[in-house]
Amino acid sequence: MNRNDGCMRGGNRFKLGLFASNCSNGLTMTLVPEAWDASWENNVEMAQFAEGMGLEFILPVARWHGYGGKTDTEGTSFETLTWASGLLASTQNIMVFGTVHVPLVNPVWAAKQIVTADHIGRGRFGLNIVSGYNESEFRMFGVEMREHDERYVFTEEWLTIVKRIWSEDQAFEHKGKYFHLREVRSRPKPYAGQRPMIMSAGSSPAGRAFARRHADCLFMSINRLETLAAEIALLREGLASHVGVYASGPIFCRPTQKEAEEYYHYVVYENGDWEAVENVLRIRSNQKSLSVEDMKRQRERLINVATYPIIGNPDTVAQIFKNMSEAGMDGMAVGLVNFINDLPLIGNEVLPRMAWLGIRGSNTEKVHADSNRGQRP
What we know:
This protein is of the alpha/beta class. The protein is 41% helix and 15% strand. The strands form 2 sheets. An 8-stranded parallel β-barrel has the order 1-2-3-4-7-8-9-11, surrounded by 7 helices. It is globular, with a radius of gyration of 20 Å.
């Protein structure tokens, strides 16, 4: 009996996953009519599409309320551990992550639910650990949000307990700074006797230090492609060789470059929810020192939930992924305005070009669009 997570530990040179499909509107704060409807039926259809295309993983966002504005992007969302369990039961090969706000969940309870999902997927479950940043979400739970670096001290103790639960057969006691637990024991253990893959997205020094000690996948933010190689080289200092480096962002892909740029303008500038962007700026407290130019760029990024957008025809998108790979990146979690509408072009046109560029294997299965979904030309 072996874990079925090899697609993330080997396989394609540049891995691709889908990001934020468990949330309304996904990654983009837009009022376009085709914006993502995060229904359960759509999530299952999307996951089976992605698996047929040979994508490696699906990654959710843990969100407890949305960003307001007219769209309230991510205001409707599925809890990620139960969502992951359902998708794992509906697929055979693709890896599905669950995202856990560590300060909001007891480690004993979380350890068992994670193992349950892991067995449902026969080793295809991965854990994305989040220490949290949105104080209003903490208030929903009646939990105090600690000072930034202290959150990672808490997270490290939480994860230490979870790892012990996964690995130790005898009941144990844990007496730490935040938890005093007695007679802790739990069965079953993770599938195949190996812990799930752990992902972390901390970008601060404290977050990076935590990831270096515990993570198998580290997510970083892309500022500019021109500086990506230098940023990854710096990030990899002290990082174990097996740890993968990833980023996230939406793809705006159309058959021609002109169509892609026009579609981006339509989604972001003609139909962007700028009221929601201002709400995000109020949530994040580190924007005051930015220049006017940087603030403008940041607002555009925030339309895409502060991630890096890729805009272009299939050749352009594939070449950007090749450039990322050559810079030292292992993969990307991508959002789409509408996952079901937009996956066929990615599967039928972008992936073959990535194979030709040598960063993915070939995949002959075609994904067919649903002509009744009314995608804007």
